[in-house]
Amino acid sequence: MKHDFTRVQNIYIVCGKTDMRKGIDGLATLVQDSFELDPFSDSIFLFSGTSKDRYKCLYFDEDGFALLYKRLDSGRLQWPKNEKEVRNLSQQELRWLLEGLSLQQPKAILKSAKGVF
Q1: 113, HSE (Cβ side, Cα atoms, 13 Å)
Q2: What does DSSP assign to residue 111?
Q3: Number of C-beta neighbours around residue 93 at 10 A
Q4: Which of 2, 57, 80, 100 measures 20 to 30 Å from 14, CA to CA?
Q5: What mean pLDDT comes out for the span 32-42?
Q6: Using alpha carbons only, how large is the chain's radius of gyration in Å?
Q7: Is 117 a member of any domain?
């Protein structure tokens, strides 16, 4: 499966810790019931557990769900802690997160969605 995720409409991060034993059905139910979001939409949903050295990515690609699971060899993700929150991320914020940086970069210049201010 090869997919260009840079064209996905929304990237959501489920803040706090998620039970990483959950599979596709459990994560899709969490998205739908706890956050009232549509797991079948053109969206990526990111989850992390207590140790923050691994994450899961849930995506529906029109004919079924894909679940990506990644465990880091070293280091930890700077995952937001508010367990009752889900945040919509930009592509840049996703890169920061997956590179081990904080989502709040005090000196970063963010471009608008259209690239024009």
Answers
A1: 7
A2: P
A3: 20
A4: 2
A5: 95
A6: 14
A7: no
